[in-house]
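Input chain follows. Return structure tokens only.
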Amino acid sequence: MKEGLFISHGIDVVQKHLILQGYSQTEIALVGEQHSLFSGNSANISLHNIRFPINNRYNIARIDKDSYLIFKDNTISTTAVVGNCFEIDGGSLLITNLKLDFKTVGERRVFNLIKFGELGGYLQVHKTYIEGITVGGKPLFGDERATGISIRKCQFKHVQIDKSNISNNVDTIVGSTNINITRCTFIDVDNALIGGIINGLNWNGKLSVIGSNFKNCHNFDVTIGISMSASHTDITSGDVKFKDDTFEDSSSTGYGGAIRFVSNGELKIEDCKFIGCNSLGKGGAIFTQGNGFHNLQDLKFDSCSVSENEIADGGSLYIDGGENLLEDISISNSQAKIVVVLDSDSVSRGGAIFIINWGYDSEIKNLEIDRCSADAGGAIYIESTSERLEIKKSRFSNNKANSGGGGSIYASIPQLIYLRKDEFLSSSVLIANKGSDLHFGDIGVDTEVINWIEIKENAVDESVSNSSEPRVCIETQGCQEGWLLEYKKLPGWATALVVLFSVVLTAATVILVMCCVWRCRKNTKVSNISTSGQDDTNIKVSNNSTSGQDNTNIQVNVEEGRQIGANANKFNINPFPSQQQRNICPPISTALLFEQQLQQQQIQQNNLQQPSNKCPQYQANLEIDDLPQ
């Protein structure tokens, strides 16, 4: 198509293929009573590099059942509002490099950009950059009727939601859409995953977010009370997977600064980073509620926090319910804090993690928590579990409880935990007799008969500490000794000495091996022992150098008339003495007795050692490189 404006009354592409290729100034507009510019069942449409001036009266295309539309490198132009551009009812739409052109410089609004019908359908958005818009109505891409949505290699920047429009809120819609987000970037975006760009969290479908970055994003929860209710969690059962994602400076006015997962489905988060995330109330970075399996592995949290006036739980993580596995997680500089103390019940709990209602088979291992703080449970606060929660091979260092106790861990009763091979380093409390490492709210057994040995052995095994005493306290029974073994570590000078010795030993070994190789190349002795009754041939290789150069001489003693086992091209063989006079030593007669042969051989060997020896010495000069390696 040439440049210019083309007017259409609507194009019906039923069971047809249509390809339109335009230029930068090619425009197509709809006139008449038709509702869609392109439509038709079982249609295959491809539109490239075309501008579409639109208004609210019609949409660009209706993608019906078994239809497919490719919308690539096109521009949607309008004055200030974009909406009702596509309707998908059983078909598929692929958008690549979409551009929005607003003629006004004020607020730019997008609402109901893509609508799905009763039959659902599929949407793919690739390599699209959208900046500086306000989203109202439905999310930017898709709604609860969509069958599947895929967003790949896109960037969204400065995208706000219309907070006065309740339909953007996740709690009013429960869909079953499967959504995949891959290698996308979200910068300063409101409710990116819960009504802004898409609406994927807390649905009955599946959400996958892979290799994406979220920076300075905000989550606004207008109806937080609804999402916490039992009826809501019973409805949703969708699964969510985050992998290789980064959340930086993400925040929430509700729960979960980066992620709020409310579902009985499975949550899997791996190889992700959470930096500077914060929320009000619960879960500075992640808030989870549900009875499903929560698998969190290879995560890093840095400088996350939760703060409120009355309650602040879980500086980085708040996990309520389900079977949970936390493995290979690093949390540093996380805190839970009360901003303004309203009454005596105001308390912050779990500077890094808050645990409540955990199910059977839950486990924590290879955890590292450093420099975290809260009023109670500087690192972890455990409210309730279905069985003992095993925490093993984890390290807690420099954590602090400000008022409640448990510089590293606070648990309601000892029966909630089993610590195995953990390390507690330099944890502290500000209040005396509160347990610098562990603090329990109650003993958990009949106080008339207390078996302290059994309680200790069931709660702690092979764990060590260097924190100040008292390290373990029980609110109703006082402080205990001997629960944690003394942490022993080599002093700094000893560690440095061990490292230095290892380096020296390694260097010496390398030098020794190199010297051996060098010597082997300089001096080589080869002996040929004959077992066939023939005369022995002895070859001696030696290195003689007087001028700094390497000259290797080979002396070969052989019977006269026999071949020397060497290549004449490589060896400079001189079969005669320096006087150039040939002397012949006859071979030993085989007819002699054995004793006579031995005597004759001894005489010849003695003659070889004398300067007057008349038997020839075969001398060969061999270059170093000719020696066998």
